[in-house]
């Protein structure tokens, strides 16, 4: 598969070069081809893995979403049946996975993003020595990453009175009984959102911080001459417009990060599925159908739906921050 | 007020402005300290949790600071597997191998790919870059099923390849490196070529040294990903011997939400996961910030 791909990439280069340079010297032509062949050789290792583990899976997810496939019998084409089932009959999806994902993404995504920007901005106000340490403090939850992240919160959110949060609230009289923060359907979603927000100062946050630091200081000077009074105006009229590319990068990272979340609910509550599906996200639904029920066709239809959600949200942010070629 | 140099007035002005706005600055510091406390508090807890001896885990009201810190939890972590076939050291060895190998391959492969994309303008480079940008918006995690089929058809299940290869193609990595290489003036590369340097020499001697900050950043990111990765162990490894440390932790913690019994060992494990990430990030922090300045998507 990969070799075919490399071949396909090589061919147009040779013919295109040949067409362009028929009048050029033969030696130069050879050198040009040699140079480009090397370029393809350079990108080959990445492209092979890229095609194998990203392009082919995405493409076959699209194909499989129109089929039924249980990994034993050969796949059978069923048209839009999977999607029809998804939007009309799959109650788990319609009642839990979809609303939960929206709730989770709409709160955790934008809030985390805005918080990341504001914190980045506050940090850049400080002198460089302090800046470094605050940046580390904000980024350190991301260093926890993955499975360790939920472990960190387990002693905090334990449902008995030994849990830090419960014992604190009990002591101060806010609650009279321990609250089941991660194992009850009322509180699991909130816990998931808080933990996600906690760890959302990731690579997007660093990008925005670097972006703010890189804004040309002369712009601020010019802005002040033009009558910008407050720091808020300064952010709105100077900082954000001059770091749009970094804002967009941060937004893309935030969107992808929130939509692909799935394991956090099961890891926090320690149950799969989560208590009364309160933390059931689309990713859980995909795993459920893909690896428990082995309805791979339908699971792929769900992934395609999730990919489209990501794509549309990203398009939306592109509209907000994308440059219109005026830079 | 226009000054000829760009860097110096920048610093000078920032500091002078801070002098004027020192009250504002103080308020910012207070605010940030509060936020940092929220961010760091769970880490402080887990650190102490890991050092608490067994009895202290059950004390009510729970204490924050470990009264008589001990390494008991770490000992327990290593002893949990003492009667099973696979010792915990095997998981750690797997994790380390996978992490180190993927850092090397991801950075190498991404840099190799980013260089022609940025400087060669070979036929089709726009298409390739556009595809990479498009997949930046997708998370490969969402298409686990076809990925599983690819891996099983390649026959790399239960091998280290199965851990590493699916993680090699990191669109963000190529993207960041390409943005960084864009900053290198073409004249520099051209003059090296005129001196008779071959393309690979140009890449190794000129491009790589200049983009070292980006290499460090991608290295950190891929280390963190590989070091904390449960997915490949879950999906592609049926052989218990080939699974990684994070997988071992996740098997420790399942059904642990309201169970304090193994929390000490889990905390120790979390700390064990955290420390390498922290050290590597501390060492390369300034490089990361320098790379992120070029992260913008235009």
UniProtKB/TrEMBL annotation, chain B:
Signal peptide from the UniProt entry: none
Organism annotation: Paenibacillus agaridevorans
Membrane topology: Multi-pass membrane protein
GO biological process: transmembrane transport
UniProt superkingdom: Bacteria
Family in the record: Belongs to the binding-protein-dependent transport system permease family.
UniProt keywords, alphabetically: Cell membrane, Membrane, Transmembrane, Transmembrane helix, Transport
One of the record's GO cellular component terms: plasma membrane
Domain ABC transmembrane type-1: 92-284
Protein name: ABC transporter permease
Signal recorded as keyword: no
Classification via InterPro entries: MetI-like (IPR000515), MetI-like_sf (IPR035906)
Pfam families attached to this UniProt entry: BPD_transp_1
PROSITE patterns linked to this entry: ABC_TM1 (PS50928)
Localization terms from the record: Cell membrane
Transmembrane stretches, start-end: 91-115, 127-148, 160-181, 202-227, 264-284
Main location per the UniProt record: membrane
């Amino acid at each position: 598969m990969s070799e075919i791909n490399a071949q396909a990439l090589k061919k147009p280069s040779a013919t295109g070069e040949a067409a362009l340079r028929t009048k050029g010297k033969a030696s130069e032509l050879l050198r040009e081809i040699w140079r480009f062949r090397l370029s393809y050789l350079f990108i080959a290792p990445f492209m092979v893995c890229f095609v194998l583990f990203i392009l082919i899976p995405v493409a076959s997810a699209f194909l499989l979403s129109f089929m039924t496939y249980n990994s034993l019998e050969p796949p059978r084409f069923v048209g839009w049946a999977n999607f029809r089932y998804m939007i009309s009959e799959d109650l788990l999806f319609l009642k839990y996975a979809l609303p939960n994902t929206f709730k989770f993404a709409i709160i955790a995504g934008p809030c985390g993003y805005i918080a990341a920007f504001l914190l980045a901005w506050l940090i850049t106000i400080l002198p460089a020595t302090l800046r470094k340490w605050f940046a580390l403090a904000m980024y350190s939850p991301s260093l926890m990453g993955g499975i360790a992240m939920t472990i960190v919160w387990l002693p905090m959110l334990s449902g008995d009175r030994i849990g830090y949060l419960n014992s604190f609230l009990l002591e101060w009289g806010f609650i009279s009984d321990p609250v089941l923060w991660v194992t009850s359907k009322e509180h699991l979603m909130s816990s998931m959102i808080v933990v996600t927000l906690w760890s959302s100062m990731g690579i997007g946050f660093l990008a925005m911080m670097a972006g703010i630091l890189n804004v040309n200081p002369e712009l601020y000077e010019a802005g002040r001459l033009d009558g910008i009074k407050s720091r808020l105006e300064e952010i709105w009229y100077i900082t954000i417009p001059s770091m749009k590319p970094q804002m967009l990068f941060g937004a893309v990272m935030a969107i992808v990060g929130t939509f692909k979340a799935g394991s956090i609910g099961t890891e926090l509550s320690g149950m799969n599925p989560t208590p009364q599906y309160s933390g059931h996200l689309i990713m859980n639904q995909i795993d459920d159908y893909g690896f428990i029920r082995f309805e791979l066709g339908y699971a792929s239809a769900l992934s395609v739906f999730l990919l489209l959600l990501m794509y549309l949200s990203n398009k939306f942010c592109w509209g907000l921050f994308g440059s219109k070629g005026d830079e | 007020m226009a000054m000829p140099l760009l860097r110096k007035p920048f610093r000078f002005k920032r500091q002078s402005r801070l002098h004027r706005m020192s009250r504002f600055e103080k308020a910012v510091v207070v605010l940030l300290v509060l936020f940092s406390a929220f961010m760091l508090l769970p880490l402080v807890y887990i650190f102490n949790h890991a050092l608490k001896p067994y009895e202290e885990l059950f004390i009510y009201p729970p204490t924050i600071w470990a009264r008589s810190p001990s390494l008991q939890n770490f000992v327990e972590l290593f002893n949990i597997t003492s009667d099973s076939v696979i010792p915990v050291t095997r998981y750690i060895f797997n994790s380390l191998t996978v992490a180190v190998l993927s850092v090397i391959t991801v950075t190498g492969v991404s840099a190799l790919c980013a260089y022609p994309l940025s400087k060669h303008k070979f036929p089709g480079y726009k298409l390739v870059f556009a595809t990479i940008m498009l997949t930046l918006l997708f998370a490969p995690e969402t298409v686990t099923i076809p990925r599983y089929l690819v891996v099983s058809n390649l026959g790399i299940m239960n091998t280290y390849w199965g851990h590493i290869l699916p993680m090699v193609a990191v669109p963000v990595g190529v993207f960041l490196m390409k943005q960084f290489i864009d900053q290198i003036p073409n004249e520099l590369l051209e003059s090296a070529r005129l001196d008779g340097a071959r393309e690979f020499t140009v890449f190794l001697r000129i491009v790589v040294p200049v983009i070292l900050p980006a290499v460090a950043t991608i290295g950190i990111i891929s280390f963190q990903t590989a070091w904390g990765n449960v997915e490949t162990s879950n999906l592609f490894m049926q052989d218990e011997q080939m699974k990684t440390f994070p997988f071992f932790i996740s098997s420790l913690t399942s059904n642990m939400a309201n169970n304090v019994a193994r929390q000490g060992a889990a905390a120790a494990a979390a700390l064990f996961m955290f420390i390498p990430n922290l050290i590597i990030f501390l060492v390369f922090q300034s490089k990361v910030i320098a790379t992120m300045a070029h992260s913008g998507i235009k």
